[in-house]
Amino acid sequence: MKSPEQTTYIAGVDGQSETKLPSWYRTHKSDPTPMSFAEAIRRLPRATNTPVAYHNPYTREWVETDRFSAIVEPSRLQEQEEDPLFNVPTDSYSIINPTDVYAPLEDVLRETEYDDHSLGEVVFGEIRQYRGGGEVHMDVMFDGLSIDLPGERDPITLGVTSGYDYFGGHAVYVEGFARDTYCANSIRSLTDRKTVKHVGDVGDFHTWWETILDQLELVVDDLHRFIEDAQEITLDVTTVPFDLREFYNLLGFPEYLAKRAAEDAQAESPNPFDIDMWTLHSGATYALTHFYSGKEGAALDRYTRVANDILFNPDATLDIVKGAYEQRAADATSADGQTGLEQQSALAQLERVSSDVLEKSQQFESREQELRDRFDVLSK
Question: How far is CA 242 from its chain centroid?
């Protein structure tokens, strides 16, 4: 991802907490001196609105309008050292400041217990600022809310990722998130994304956070089972008409990400030619976490969905690959409409592999639907 202008590390919900950053997390960060979540939130730039005017070039007068207002950072108006202007939206825009969203989360973290600790005692993570602090994204995790996989590897730690901006590009959002501590890969979109737009009455964030954290606890056991099952489903690269880099290409990854994903998956697999779906998913998240060069936003979300389908919906993943390869074969069809023997053989190979994966992965769809149904119950 593009480097943030400022990153703040957090540990503990407030100044009374004695929480420290986990050792595995510190090793992947440079000079991660943390502050409490409450302090970090209150240091984020705020916004207020102020009237605007437009210049009439004929009368050379400035005319005020109530149809728009300027969204500005109030302390910068006073100090006059930084540009205070974030945006000039219409009058329907509702400002949502950091404390509006995240101060209720502080209360929920203090109230919510997991494994005999309040989440406020085990919260840690990072807050990233872009565009003068007018765009913010954060990963908030909970030390101990984790999944232990077989073997001597570090656990997968769960939390939420959240953010907003003052430019109209991002509603306030939150979704389930995990960090694979073994390789520092980020696993995003583990729960349904919840959003609050900057329009009208923004509602009660306290209940909002309670529901989200309840969903996150549901994910723990289910994610464990998804991973275990995905480790039983493998893709034998010697039986398909493409290499591993092309596999990620066919899923829609650009070349630079496909190359990194393939390299990681092959390096981490006991057999670099017969790779399970969990390892293929990890290759994708490795590429996105460490080499994605775009902004946090729609493009990253799209690639994240592709990566997650490898784990949560392997059958759909193979369907996408098969469809993309069939399109490639169709594009290579000769002028008389004949598909070459090589393409025909390749398509037959791919059909056999897809059928095999379908047989093994039918339980994924029902399990994912069960999890969604439980999310829906919590949201009511």
Answer: 29
CA distance 71 to 90: 10
**Contact indicator for 34, 22 with CB cutoff of 8 Å:** no
pLDDT tier at 356, thresholds 50, 70, 90: low
Quick check: 335 pLDDT over 60?
Answer: no
The position carrying tokens 């969204």 is 71
Q: How confident is the model at residue 310 (pLDDT cuts 50, 70, 90)?
A: very high
DSSP character at residue 4: P
What are the tens digits of pLDDT across the range 42-101?
999 999 999 999 999 999 999 999 899 999 999 999 888 889 999 999 888 899 999 999
Domain ranges of the chain: 6-43+96-216, 48-87, 231-379
Please report how the helices 341-379 and 205-230 are oriented relative to each other, as an axis angle in degrees rounded to 10: 140
Q: How far apart are CA 240 and CA 146, in angstroms?
A: 35
Q: What is the helix (H) or strand (E) element at residue 66, kind and residue range?
A: strand 61-72
Say whether pLDDT at 365 is over 90: no
Vertex 26 angle, CA 102 and 175, to 5°: 35
φ, ψ (nearest 5 deg) of residue 118: -75, 150
Classify residue 317 by burial, with Cβ atoms within 10 Å: 0-12, 13-18, 19+: buried
Alpha helices in 28-128 (DSSP H): 37-43, 74-79, 98-111, 119-122
Strands in 104-198 per DSSP E:
113-114, 117-118, 123-130, 135-147, 156-165, 172-180, 185-187, 194-196
- Tokens coding 144: 């101990």
Cβ contact 184:289 at 8 Å: yes
Angstrom distance (rounded) from CA 25 to CA 235: 32
Q: How far is CA 12 from CA 67, 82, 103, 362, in A?
A: 43, 31, 14, 41
Confidence of residue 367 (pLDDT cuts 50, 70, 90): low
Q: Which helix (H) or strand (E) holds 227?
A: helix 205-230
